[in-house]
Design a protein that fits this description.
This protein has a single domain, classed as Glycerol-3-phosphate (1)-acyltransferase (3-Layer(aba) Sandwich), CATH 3.40.1130. Strand 3, helix 4 and strand 4 form a beta-alpha-beta unit. Helix 1 crosses helix 4. The termini are far apart. The chain is α/β, with parallel strands linked by helices. The chain is about 35% helix and about 20% strand. Strands 1, 2, 3, 4, 5, 7, 10 and 11 form an 8-stranded mixed beta sheet that branches. The chain is globular and about 50 Å long. The model has no long low-confidence stretch (mean pLDDT about 85).
Length: about 220
């Protein structure tokens, strides 16, 4: 077996292991939902972009489950931006196990193609998830804000997640991992509908909105 094949098998095993752990930890935990009337009001239209800080991505399966239950006529199709780096590819593979379509790209590499893909999925009424401080920080910062020029009726929903006694990694974002049979909170803030002529949300507005729902 070649070195490349061994690495692929190892990465596939790691993805399966992380997916199983996150799925069990989230499903055995109790979740409190706050402010989800903001989500429900826009969910059926499909033109919604959820923004969360990078440190909460491992808790996102709880949010995905809540979004799926909220869909009155259909289960929303969801896509998310994933870094083109190797760790981003692994994260994208894990996201796929939870039913999320990863879009490869970032602000520094593949950003143009990612925006084009976002436009395509947006027009198909996919729900989108973005971590504005990813893929490498700084933590809880948005260097460029959010720019969706050319897209009409963009609604942005800030979401914060928290968990009692979480596992915190020593990564740049101090990522939170869920604990099995834990207690967590998902909090939505008010939706911001972008002015079509501007199509952007400043970095200050992004940070303010996300920090207001994050702890």
């Amino acid at each position: 077996m070649s070195g490349g094949s061994i690495r692929q098998h190892a990465e596939s095993f790691a993805v399966s292991l992380v997916h199983a752990f996150l799925g069990r930890a989230v499903s055995t935990s109790t979740w409190l939902s706050v402010g989800f009337e903001h989500l429900d009001a826009y969910l059926e239209d499909g033109r919604l972009i959820i923004v969360i800080w990078h440190e909460f991505l491992a808790l996102a399966p709880a949010l995905l489950g809540r979004v799926g239950r909220a869909g009155k006529r259909r289960t929303p199709a969801i896509c998310a931006l994933a870094s083109t780096h190797r760790d981003g590819a692994l994260a994208g593979n894990i996201a796929e196990r939870f039913g999320v379509t990863p879009i490869q790209g970032s602000s520094t590499r593949g950003g143009g193609s990612a925006l084009r893909s976002f436009r395509k999925f947006f027009e198909r009424r996919f729900l989108m998830i973005i971590a504005p401080d990813g893929p490498r920080g700084p933590r809880r910062s948005s260097a460029r804000g959010l720019n969706f020029a050319g897209l009409d009726d963009v609604a942005i929903l800030p979401v914060g997640l928290a968990m009692n006694d979480p596992i915190r990694l020593s990564s740049w974002d101090r990522m939170i991992l869920p604990c099995p049979q834990g207690v967590g909170t998902m909090r939505c803030g008010p939706v911001t509908v972008l002015d079509p002529s501007a199509g952007a949300l400043s970095k200050y507005a992004v940070v303010w909105a996300l920090n207001k729902v994050s702890h």
